[in-house]
């Protein structure tokens, strides 16, 4: 409040006539009073105006009228308790939680405490740093068409970045029957894995985004021929696509000496082995590896591995390896004997796998393994038996697994 000013005229004596008794007609008592008049006005102002105004101002500013809290302990100080003027509480700086406007404060023991960063350069909590990792918020792993509507992760409707990891459908393995009285060699490859693609984009909560998960290649069956597998389907997010893996190749040849033809492996992020004459069984390829073991110097028979793109066999958002090709197989027959060899599927990090090859020299129905990890290739199927009269058995390859669309987000915004 404002202090009342003294505005009275105090020039009392100066205003008198030179001869106040004669000219002004003042009595001696009246003249004496004139000399006291200014002092009495000041007295009246101090006692009746200034002092009451000062007391009122002190009460208003809460210096002594009960708004200074009682109590307090050693080491405590008066701290602001709100945005109002002249409020205070006893405490230690740091008793209250830090806020974006006060990123750093201290606890009762004097240790620094920080809150979530608000601008670049702020100190960050450990939980904030951990929040920078990508967390999966949606996963589509069954072939089909979907609509993704981004949730309002931060509660204020703001746009945010998502990481998209696309996997195309895996190819199915090929199928072949080797028979005849003459020497006949056969080879068949598993399906290649689907390709993968990753990218980061900004999405808006509530807006619809188209999602397509490519189907795995379907299995193929034969009783007396060589059939190549089916390729996997294309997966996409918001129009950005990735292709599926190729179906496994199948073939045979009557030449039993040299110059043997070969079957190329199926292409994919993880390509399948192309097998021709290898007298052992091993594990199919995974995680971008390439199989160089199929070579026989005696018969000059080699193999061509399917084209692979190893960098696609890793998910950069989850830091996980992925994708494997289906197992391949080969065999041959003479007029009196037959042999068959093949690859079993590797077990991936998620305990699922691609399809193992199925191979046999005993007349029977043959069914190769179906891939169970997203985007992996199906296994090849081969029956090697010399007697052409046994053609009633079905050789069926393994189907490739459906692809996937995985969506990730970081739970921290700056």
Description:
9% of the residues lie in helices and 26% in strands. The chain contains two helices and 28 strands. A hairpin with a 4-residue loop joins strand 22 (329-333) and strand 23. The two termini are 45 Å apart.
- How much helix is in the residues? under 10%
How many β-strands, per DSSP?
Answer: 28
Give the SSE string: HEEEEHEEEEEEEEEEEEEEEEEEEEEEEE
* Largest beta-sheet details: 5 strands, mixed
With helices defined by DSSP (H or I, 4 residues minimum), what is the helix count?
Answer: 2
CA gyration radius, whole angstroms: 45 Å
Oligomer: single chain
Structural class by secondary-structure content: mainly beta
TL;DR of this structure?
This protein has 414 residues and is mainly β. The protein has helices spanning 28-60, 126-130; strands at residues 77-79, 89-91, 104-106, 112-114, 135-140, 144-148, 160-167, 175-178, 184-188, 196-203, 209-213, 221-222, 226-227, 235-237, 240-242, 250-253, 282-283, 295-296, 301-302, 314-315, 320-321, 329-333, 338-344, 358-360, 366-367, 381-384, 395-396, 404-409. Strands 16-9-22-23-17 form a five-stranded mixed sheet, with no helix packed on it.
Question: What keywords describe this structure?
Answer:
single chain, 414 residues, mainly beta, 5-stranded mixed β-sheet, rod-shaped
Q: How do the helices and strands line up, and which of them pair or pack?
A:
Elements: H1 28-60, E1 77-79, E2 89-91, E3 104-106, E4 112-114, H2 126-130, E5 135-140, E6 144-148, E7 160-167, E8 175-178, E9 184-188, E10 196-203, E11 209-213, E12 221-222, E13 226-227, E14 235-237, E15 240-242, E16 250-253, E17 282-283, E18 295-296, E19 301-302, E20 314-315, E21 320-321, E22 329-333, E23 338-344, E24 358-360, E25 366-367, E26 381-384, E27 395-396, E28 404-409
